[in-house]
Amino acid sequence: MNKPASTLGSWRVDVILEDQGLVKIDAAGQITIIAHAYCYEHEDHGCGQEAIANGHLIAAAPDLYEALAHCLMTLIEWESYEEGPCGEDHQIAVKKATDALSKASPNKL
What we know:
By secondary structure, the protein is of the alpha+beta class. It has helices spanning about 45-60, 60-80, 90-105, and strands spanning about 10-15, 20-25, 35-40. It folds into 2 domains: about 10-60, no CATH class; about 65-105. It has 3 helices and 3 strands. The chain has a 3-stranded antiparallel sheet. Helix 2 packs antiparallel against helix 3 (about 90-105).
């Protein structure tokens, strides 16, 4: 399975203005800004924590991609060891993992 063409390395969150919901996601050790996460004030909660949570989710994307790709390869390998077709839950897990990886890195699978 090919790696995505995204910025390599660990991504990290840099909280710029917590109370205003501005977060920068960058590649550790590089002069590369991956994204900014913003949040506009909601009536039911402050936006700072939401922007930070979104930033951490974005920063985890490369690790999540790698972990999911590893899980998918393991599931596919298990199919070859099974006698007969795998169960429906197994097939659903393979499809969801394949779909998610394709969404993250189109034309790479």
